[in-house]
Amino acid sequence: MTSGHAVIVGAGAAGWSAADTLVRSGWPGRVTIVDPAGATNRTLVNTGVLTGLLNREQLSRPIPTGTELLQDEVEAIEEVGTVRLRSGGRLAPDAVVIASGSVPRPASFEADAGAPRSRILPLHSAEDAERIRGLVPSNGASVVILGAGLVGSETASLLADAGVDVTLVARSTLPLREQLGPTVASELLRRHRDRIRVRTGRSVARATTRSSSAVIELSDGETLEGDAAIVAHGTLARRPASGSDRGAITVDARLRTGLRGVYAAGGVASILAHGTVIRVDHWDDAAAQGAHAARSILHDLLGGPDPGEYRFESGYSSRIHGSMLTAWGVATDRTEWSRHVDGATVGVGRHLGHVTAVTGLDAPLVVRDLAASASRDLRDSLSLYPTGV
Selecting from 3.40.50.2020, 3.50.50.60, 3.90.550.10, 3.30.70.20, what CATH number does the domain 106-231 have? Predict the structure, then answer.
């Protein structure tokens, strides 16, 4: 080491956790977080800002004790590890963690020529939530949600609870099947249909806006109209560098990139694990990845304990239509799902003979116990998965 300086690109869950872990673990030099806005808790975008319980300022969180915030943007990370800033400055740290997060996946449809997108919006940031909230009247509101993933499903439930007339549109005939398994996904879809209008197996053929509404024409010819349309088609990795180099940054199982001293974590990273490349973009997993990247730095640069390969063992939960969805681990298109828990809506996902994902509706204790057992099994396996593709 030369300067003992670590730079964290991004102040979201992964970046915050990486910085905090470095400081708490005795990193001997400076830890600088580079982010134009500072740390924000994005989990509260729909549950807090969209519902009117919070404003965007209330989503701010202090940076970890012992770190410094540089409100700037990273323009590029060069081959030698130098960090070039948009302001024109340069940093030459010993270690870099790229934790720049994600951006909304663009809508797969085109709006009519000349039609403004003012009422057809993503829901990714606090600013998005405030714009959508400003379009939805306090009484008699209607919203069309395009996408029935976790964000779309949770948002549909929140708006329905607030008295909004909601139509949920999914391109899949069984939304979230890959992530939750068929048992839990089928039951979640049934609960959606009990509370709101649902259109599955449909895509958007045409979209436009009027002075006070968004108009969505589906692939089967049905036309939906609402005060706003929310596009919830997932996210894409947000690289800090400008130019043509796009997409997620592939890292090894210890979250190292191909550049010495440069690591990546969170929504920007695709990890070589389970015999494939996996990208996960949710808060708890991003925080776990950030901490793991920090421990890899401490091992690689200071000779600290080897953190081993990253394992997707984070959980998440969401309340949807009065039911608690809980999940642990990660599923891919190679996951084989089964249900072997009598009397509980639970999905168990296996890969190469080992449980790597557990999901459930209103079964948090069952999910917890199965996850704990699966975690012990994974940790007892020395070289369970190849790290190459």
Answer: 3.50.50.60
What would the pLDDT profile of 6-52 be if each residue is shown by its tens digit? 999 999 999 999 999 999 999 999 999 999 989 989 899 999 999 99
Parallel, antiparallel, or unpaired: how do β-strands 315-320 and 102-104 relate?
unpaired
Dihedral sign from CA coordinates of 226, 325, 238, 236: negative
Predicted confidence band of residue 351 (pLDDT cuts 50, 70, 90): confident
Q: Which architecture does CATH list for 6-103+235-302?
A: 3-Layer(bba) Sandwich (3.50)
**Long-range contacts at 330-336 (CB < 8 A, ≥ 24 apart):** 330/274, 330/278, 330/280, 330/285, 330/356, 330/357, 331/178, 331/179, 331/180, 331/181, 331/356, 331/357, 332/178, 332/274, 332/276, 332/278, 333/178, 334/274, 334/275, 334/276, 335/178, 335/181
Strand-pairing partners, residue 53, are none
The pTM (predicted TM-score) of the whole model is: 0.92
Report the candidate in 296, 307, 294, 304 with the shortest Cα–Cα distance to residue 6.
Answer: 294
Q: Where in the chain is the domain with CATH 3.50.50.60?
A: 6-103+235-302, 106-231
Q: What is the mean pLDDT of residues 187-210?
A: 95
Average pLDDT over residues 260-279: 91
